[in-house]
Amino acid sequence: VQLVESGGGLVQPGGSLRLSCEASGLLFNFYTLDWYRQAPGKQRELVATITSGAATTYVDSVKGRFTISRDNAKNTVFLQMTSLKPEDTAVYYCHAVRVNSYWGQGTQVTVSS
Q1: How far apart are CA 32 and CA 109, in angstroms?
Q2: Mean pLDDT, each 10-residue run in order, the chain (113 residues)
Q3: N or C of the chain: less Cβ packing under 10 Å?
Q4: What are phi and psi of 9, to 5 degrees?
């Protein structure tokens, strides 16, 4: 199983980024998919979840700004991030869970002027 994130980078406050995570080696349609993030010196935090039935949940700090979605035909989960703030700076990780749990390697998002 492999999860490969992409789309991170440096963006100014108020800007947008779209993260992608392409999965291989698993029955993608059946997995719940999450985006986590970890800022320096902080614990890893659950940001957004999308179930196999496409139900979504978000941590309060990103509600109204981030949108998680999935494309089962492409085995890919996305995180659209808008109105980015410096406190969104972190390494963002893709996570897939059903019976087993799998992680991507992470992609850095830096929000700074």
Answers
A1: 23
A2: 97 98 96 97 97 98 98 98 98 97 97 97
A3: C
A4: 160, -165
